[in-house]
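Ticket #463: bound-state structure for magnesium ion.
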Amino acid sequence: MESRIALSLRAKFIIPIIGIILLLGAVTTIFVHSTLTSTLTRELQERGTVISKNLAANSIDAILTDNVVELRRLIFDAKEAEKDIAYVYILDSKKDIIVHTFEDGFPKALLELHSSGDIRLLETEEGFIRSIATPVLDGKAGFVYVGISESSIREKIADITKTLFILTFIAIGAGILLAYFTVNLITKPIYVLTKGAEEIGKGNFDTRINISTEDEVAILADAFNKMIIELKKSMVRLIQSEKLASIGMLAAGVAHEINNPLTNILLSAESLLRKRTDENTLKQKLEEIISEVEHARIITRNLSEFSRQVEPEIKEMDIKEILERILGIIRIKNIRVERDIQSVILEGDPSQLQQVFLNIIINAVQAMPKGGRLSVSAGEANGFVEVSISDTGVGIPEESLGKIFDPFFTTKKVGEGTGLGLSICLGIVEKHEGEIKVNSKVGEGSTFTVRLPVDRYGKHSDS
Ligand SMILES: Nc1ncnc2c1ncn2[C@@H]1O[C@H](COP(=O)(O)OP(=O)(O)O)[C@@H](O)[C@H]1O
Ligand SMILES: [Mg+2]
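RESOLUTION: The complex was predicted; output attached.
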């Protein structure tokens, strides 16, 4: 998912950059091309005109004296002096050829080209030729014609245009690279941010987003971190209130459970008061009282164990101890408790795992308002502790099964359920790298199975 986001951001940067560079490249190329063409051809034409005029001035005498040898020397000298000159020829006043520089005879087609002393552009096999005519003594003596080739300047222009093209493509390449790095610079913190958000989505509230840049993204990350801290605080509050709610539900059972020893204590004390008793009976009654007080103390200690807000801590514990502690205070009318609990030592947070089983057991009890059977079993298999808690209650309809672990999903009345119980369970179990499975049939009951790795840190792998 992240790579898709990064790619599209990259494309958003690169496409306009390529567009701008292409546009700039095209505009520059067109501008340079047309300016060069007009400047160079004008310059070439001026050069041709100067040569032609010089030749006209220098050849007056030779034309008038019919000195063909001199004329021939003049035109070949002119042609030699300038490599862009394609040809030179001189006509007399009747427009007959006197001399020319063509090696393969004079092309007659040229004669029709100039009607007067002007400039013409011819397209030949050797490229464009600018033909310049200059009258000698206003045409009374004759005409000098100079053909000046444009191929060398056209080559020059083509070369420059090619260079411009190459430069444009280099600029595009550099632009893409630049965009790539810029985008990386921008997307990297965004990626870090997304990762952080995902972590929090998984319920990992200890996530902090570290962004080294000092820009808007860093401000966002800062706000994000503050939000996580607040979230964690309210999560802790919620968990605590859910904990208190479940303890409240235990209270009825506890009251009942404490009532029994208290009644026994009362009876024993009363009988001691009423009758004069011998040493032995007195001792026996007092022992009864002590044992009942011990019993009550265990229950209250268990209860206070639940309500304590303890810091998370990982240590070794016995799963049996935890389950027995819960079952020791949960005693509800019409509910028979069956247990098959093996002692298994595992590593984890006792207070948190106790919360897990308490939540599941309370749900089971709540699912059996008319009574039923609560079965709790625990054992070890393949390096996992497996705890199963079954009830013969109302069951969970198929369509709710996918939602029961969602925070705030509840089918219970206000005051009876917060909808947080199972989501807290799942959070804790996943933190312990375990899993929870549910099997349920409406009208028959449900089984929640919690699997937890026994040796999560590999401490006992060698024993
Ligand atoms: N043992 C069970 N039998 C039937 N339904 C259950 C059982 N455990 C959980 N549920 C369903 O899952 C829902 C969510 O449970 P939970 O997260 O503990 O929230 P709460 O108990 O506050 O409603 C319950 O409202 C109930 O509908
Ligand atoms: Mg619940």
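RESOLUTION NOTES: The mean pLDDT is 85.
TICKET STATUS: resolved
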